[in-house]
Each structure stands twice: as structure tokens, then as C-alpha cells.
From TrEMBL:
Its EC number is 3.2.1.-. The gene is Man1a2. Its main location: membrane. This is alpha-1,2-Mannosidase. SUPFAM superfamilies: Seven-hairpin glycosidases. GO terms for cellular component: endoplasmic reticulum; extracellular exosome; Golgi membrane. Disulfide bonds join 464-496. Gene3D superfamilies: 1.50.10.10. The lineage of its organism: Eukaryota, Metazoa, Chordata, Craniata, Vertebrata. One of its GO terms (biological process) is carbohydrate metabolic process.
Length: 643
């Protein structure tokens, strides 16, 4: 049952009528006039009944005592020498003057009951005299008390942990006025996206910028969890939008509540909420973000209660019941989902000193290491009951992508100590290069998808992140192939730029083919949309950081202008349904990742490299920067918090 404390504080939804004993004092005040009289009648009838019982029921005291729980009115006597019997600590006396005492006692009891009931009746009458506003104010005060109490309990101080070296939280202001102007333009776009969300979708997960109201999808469950607020926080902070950041912080402090009966995606909540909260904590030092991240992580843990320890895709935050997506092959969990928890979970263990999070993700890794991999490739589907692969589909795009990303980033985040993760990454990338990466007839390098023994010559927008990943992993690669991987990153960036350049809007489609005379172009109508995704811009930014080739800033600026021209509406930014049509129709969704990722990567592209340097920060898959942890070894046993 939802407790009154967990109901919205806005007063828009009053708690339902509940005459249960504990709920009674809060709820009776919400009754209407006619209901008040019914309540009075019930009370009077109850009192009459009690009196009747005392006066008219046969006197059973000769057989046994009343047990009303009023121990103070019983006779705590243990002297059995005078003919009494000691029953359970209370004395049953013999006849005679004991009977007199007995009658006196009962009279005293009756008087006490009468007085108690009269008092209750008076109190009820007093309450009913109060105005609705007074009663509501009282309820609100009671609710606030309970909320404060819960907060106090939940906000147990976490153990002090030495903060990693937080280098590079500065303005990153570029000296070149042209670049500064471009950066300011991106900041202005962020302000437009935020202000409209603030005005029309505040507290909802996302915004419908045309309908000008809140929006949500099943990944966030059925609750208003303010996904856009949490996802956008670190971008606001980096851009120096501090008033907006504080507004977000205040909302999170007062309203972000995870004790809701809501079934959410474990992966999405991890990368957007836990990642977003952790990054906000490290950047700003505000404890509230750390506390909320830890509270939320506790709610995700039941998802790991499966026969194998591979988590369910979804979990109900209240009941802890988990399950998988209905569409996933044979009840499987998804590689990119259970394989994209490592960064956040290691940070949670680091910050709390509780190894539970670390153990969960290391268990997943150990299990994957033991499994056979067809052609060295990881299939996208794994059954959490049997521990067997589902369909043999492999992808560096949807369903697979960030699993590979997190292997590399686990190594980087451990200050390159987690060599096990690096090895898994190197092995996986070698298999991917061998089986999935090809050159088109026109000379474009693309990453296809492996489906039941054959290569589908199609690449997703999501897959375009891999250009940045190859560049990021170049340094430290096996056999010193740094140059090769940097080149591969550049080729993927070029292909993905082509997928943008070959459209009417200069924005990339969701998926594009390299087949039947088609190169980097979407063929099916349902693959022509652009939903404000970041992956291509993400790759431009990594390539810029590693090469400083000005073409990446140029390509990033083209994308900025295209988004501003075709996706901007007066109520925010919207995705478009067909990038090949010069008069676009909108999907009317401002995705939270547009603020978390797309605009952040653009802003960083036009900033100096000393803003969040990659030697000190690792970005999670939702672009939330987490600091490198200088740990002694991969088991984290060097961290005092783990001893
Ligand atoms: C984001 O939520 C993350 O980047 C995720 O890894 C994949 N897709 C979206 C954005 O396209």
C-alpha cells in the first residue's frame, strides 16, 4: 500500500479514503460533510455498544478476567499464600472481600472506558468543525513529518572516501572568437531545450515540444521521474548554466523518489539516472546526488536475482520483481543492457565502500568469459535462466554496442589496471574487424551485423559511436596497432558523415545500407528518421580530441546548423520522421539524451581540451563523465573502503 508520505506533495491527488487504524488520523480529514455525519453515527453506535456490553452481558468475571491490554488496572499480585491462584502473573482471588475489590475494579474500568470514548468523541467533533483548508494543512504537516523522517533514515551518511583527482572542471573557453561563437550557439540551444522542458514538461521524463506537454516511454516505467532533469544536469554544469543546475538539484532533492510501483529498464535507469547523478556529484560535490544514486542502485539490485546472476532487463522498483522484454529471443537478456552496468557499479562500490555492486558486475564478466563465442563474437541474446545464448545475432549497434564500449572504458576507468577488461575488448574487436567490418564498392568502411551465419550490409546510426571507441582504444592496443585503430575510427567517422551528407536535411537516418547499388543511404521508410541521436557527433568529438583535424569541427558545425534549422520548434527540439524529405514532419519528442549527449558533445567539440581531459575522465555511454579511479588493482582491494 502506498503510504501517505509517498504521495505527491502538490496536493493534486488526495489519498483514498481508508478507515484502517493507522491511516485513520490522516484520512478522516478529507471526508465531505455527509461523510462526517456517517462517521459520527458510527462512533456513537460504537460507544453505545461498549456500554451495552458492560451493563447487559452476563458477568463473566467469576470465570476469567478481561484482557484489555491495560496492565496497569490489573492486580500484579503474586502472593498465593492467601488462597489465591497465580495465573500468568495475575492473581485470581477467592470469594468474599476479593469480590468487592473485583467489582470496584470493574467500575474503575468502565469509568476509564467511558472517559476515553468521550474524549475521542470530543476530538472527532473538534476535527469536524475545522475548515477544509485547515484540515488539509494538518494533513500536509503530517505528510511532511513522515517524508522528513524517511529522508533522515534514507540519508545515512556514506563512508568518507577520498575523492579521485578531479582535474579539468573549468570553463574550457576557446580563444578563437569564431569557435567561441559556435560554442555559444550550442549553449543557447541547450537553454532553449531546457527552458521549454522547464515550462511544459517539468518533472515528466521528457517533453513533447509541439503538444507542449510531458512525455514518457516504457523504459522509464509509469512514473514521473524527471529523466530530462537528471540526464541534463552535468551538461548544465559544464556550460555554466548554474541557475538551471540549481533548479534541477532542488527538484531532485524534493521530488525524486524511487519507492514507486513502476517497472523500469535497468539499463536505461543505470546509464541515465545513476550515471547522471554520479557525474553531477563529482562535478558539483553536492552530496544529494550521491545519496540518490545509491538509493536508486539499491532498487535495481533485485534485478540480479536470476538463476545465473545475469540481470533481468526490467525491474519493478517497489516489488523488486524482474522480467525480460517480450520481444527478446527466447526470454533472453540483452548484451548491451546487462553489459553496460560496469562503470556505474564500480563507482557505487567505490563511493559506498560496499562491494555488492562491484561483485554483481564482475560476476557477469566471469560468466561471459567462460562461455563459447561463435567466431569469437558475442551474440546479443543471453538467457538468464539457462545461461545459454539465444539467437546468434551480433551487432556493434543496437543490442550490442555499449557492451564493447564498457570493456574498454572499464580498463580506462581503472587507470589501465583492469587488464582483464582490456583483453576482452581487444579479443572482441579483432573478431568484429574480421567478421563485421567491410569496405563498400564506393570505398566506405562500414560495420555490418551478423545474423545466423551471414553478414547484413547495414549500419545503424547507433553503430556510429564505434568510430570514437576505436580512437579511444587506439592507445594501448595489442601489437601496438594504435595507428591502425585511429585510422579505423577516422574511416567510420567519414562513413557516418556521408550518411548525413546524402540526405536532404543533412541529418543522418536511423539505419543505412551498403547493398544493391546503395551506399550509406536508408532504403526502408521506417529507417529514415532522426531522433536527435548523438553517436555521429560523439565520434566527431573523439576524433577531434585525438587528431585536431579541423574537419571534425566543421562536420560538427554542419550538424549543429541542421538540428537548429530542422529540429528546432518554438516549444523545444523535436526528432524528424524523414531526413530525405525537405519538408520534415516532427515526431514531437525531445529525447533526454539530446540534452545529456548531443548538445554536450557539441559543446565539448567547440571547447578547449582541458575541459574534462580524457586522461582523467571517462564518459559513460550516456555521456556522463566519471573520473578515473586510481585503484591499486582490479579487485579494488587497494581501496580502503573495501577492506
Ligand atoms: C543513449 O541513451 C545512449 O547513448 C545509449 O548507449 C544508446 N542510445 C542512446 C542515444 O541514441
Amino acid at each position: 500500500m502506498t503510504t501517505p508520505a509517498l504521495l505527491p506533495l502538490s496536493g493534486r491527488r488526495l489519498p483514498p479514503l481508508n478507515l484502517g487504524a493507522s491511516a485513520f488520523p490522516h484520512h478522516r480529514a478529507t471526508l465531505r460533510l455527509s461523510e462526517k455525519f456517517i462517521l459520527l453515527l458510527i462512533l456513537s453506535a460504537f460507544i453505545t455498544l461498549c456500554f451495552g456490553a458492560f451493563f447487559f452481558l452476563p458477568d463473566s468475571s467469576k470465570h476469567k478476567r478481561f484482557d484489555l491490554g491495560l496492565e496497569d488496572v490489573l492486580i500484579p499480585h503474586v502472593d498465593t499464600s492467601k488462597g489465591g491462584k497465580n495465573l500468568g502473573g495475575f492473581l485470581i482471588h477467592g470469594q468474599g472481600h476479593d469480590e468487592h475489590r473485583h467489582r470496584e475494579e470493574e467500575e474503575r474500568l468502565r469509568n476509564k472506558i467511558r472517559a476515553d470514548h468521550e474524549k475521542a468523541l470530543e476530538e472527532a467533533k473538534e476535527k469536524l468543525k475545522k475548515s477544509r483548508d485547515e484540515i488539509q494543512a494538518e494533513i500536509q504537516t503530517e505528510k511532511n513529518k513522515v517524508v522528513q523522517e524517511l529522508k533522515r533514515k534514507d540519508s545515512k551518511p556514506l563512508p568518507p572516501v577520498p575523492l579521485p583527482n578531479l582535474i579539468g572542471i573549468n570553463s574550457g573557453e576557446p580563444a578563437d572568437p569564431d569557435i567561441r561563437e559556435k560554442r555559444n550557439k550550442v549553449k543557447e540551444m541547450m537553454k532553449h531545450a531546457w527552458d521549454n522542458y522547464r515550462q511544459y514538461g517539468w518533472g515528466h521524463n521528457e517533453l513533447k515540444p509541439i503538444a507542449r506537454k510531458g512525455h514518457s516511454t516504457n523504459i522509464f516505467g509509469n512514473s514521473q521521474m524527471g529523466a530530462t532533469i537528471v540526464d541534463a544536469l552535468d551538461t548544465l554544469y559544464i556550460m555554466g548554466l548554474h541557475d538551471e543546475f540549481r533548479e534541477g538539484q532542488e527538484w531532485i532533492d524534493k521530488n525524486l523518489d524511487f519507492s514507486v510501483n513502476s517497472e523500469v529498464s535497468v539499463f536505461e535507469v543505470n546509464i541515465r539516472f545513476i550515471g547522471g547523478l554520479l557525474a553531477a556529484y563529482y562535478l558539483s560535490g553536492q552530496e544529494v546526488f550521491k545519496i540518490k544514486a545509491v538509493q536508486l542502485a539499491g532498487k535495481l539490485l533485485p534485478a540480479f536475482n536470476t538463476p545465473t546472476g545475469i540481470p533481468w532487463a526490467m525491474v519493478n522498483l517497489k516489488s523488486g520483481v524482474g522480467r525480460n522484454w517480450g520481444w527478446a529471443s527466447a526470454g533472453s537478456s540483452i548484451l548491451a543492457e546487462f553489459g553496460t552496468l560496469h562503470m556505474e557499479f564500480v563507482h557505487l562500490s567505490y563511493l559506498t565502500g560496499d562491494p555488492v555492486y562491484y561483485n554483481k558486475v564482475m560476476h557477469i564478466r566471469k560468466l561471459l568469459q567462460k562461455m563459447d563465442r561463435p567466431n569469437g563474437l558475442y551474440p546479443n541474446y543471453l538467457n538468464p535462466r539457462t545461461g545459454r545464448w539465444g539467437q546468434h545475432h551480433t551487432s556493434v549497434g543496437g543490442l550490442g554496442d555499449s557492451f564493447y564500449e564498457y570493456l574498454l572504458k572499464a580498463w580506462l576507468m581503472s587507470d589501465k589496471m583492469d587488464t582483464e577488461a582490456r583483453k576482452m575488448y581487444d579479443d572482441a574487436i579483432e573478431a568484429i574487424e574480421k567478421h563485421l567490418i567491410r569496405k563498400s564498392n564506393g570505398g566506405l568502411t562500414f560495420i555490418g551485423e551478423w545474423k545466423n551465419g551471414h553478414l547484413e550490409r547495414k549500419m545503424g546510426h547507433l553503430t556510429c559511436f564505434a568510430g570514437g571507441m576505436f580512437a579511444l582504444g587506439a592507445d594501448g592496443s595489442r601489437d601496438d596497432k594504435a595507428g591502425h585503430y585511429l585510422q579505423l575510427g577516422a574511416e567510420i567517422a567519414h562513413t557516418c558523415h556521408e550518411s548525413y551528407d546524402r540526405t536532404a536535411l543533412k541529418l543522418g537516418p536511423e539505419a543505412f545500407k551498403f547493398d544493391g547499388g546503395v551506399e550509406a543511404v536508408a532504403v526502408r521508410q521506417n529507417e529514415k528518421y532522426y531522433i536527435l541521436r548523438p553517436e555521429v557527433i560523439e565520434t566527431y568529438w573523439y576524433m577531434w580530441r585525438f587528431t585536431h583535424d579541423p574537419k571534425y569541427r566543421q562536420w560538427g558545425w554542419e550538424a549543429t546548423q541542421a538540428i537548429d534549422k530542422y529540429c528546432r520548434v518554438s516549444g523545444g527540439f523535436s526528432g524528424v520522421k524523414d531526413v530525405y524529405s525537405s519538408s520534415p514532419t516532427y515526431d514531437d519528442v525531445q529525447q533526454s539524451f539530446f540534452l545529456a549527449e548531443t548538445l554536450k558533445y557539441l559543446y565539448l567539440l567547440f571547447s578547449n581540451d582541458d575541459l574534462l581531459p580524457l586522461d582523467n575522465w571517462v564518459f559513460n555511454t550516456e555521456a556522463h563523465p566519471l573520473p578515473v579511479l586510481h585503484l591499486a588493482n582490479t579487485t579494488l582491494s587497494g581501496n580502503p573502503a573495501y577492506r
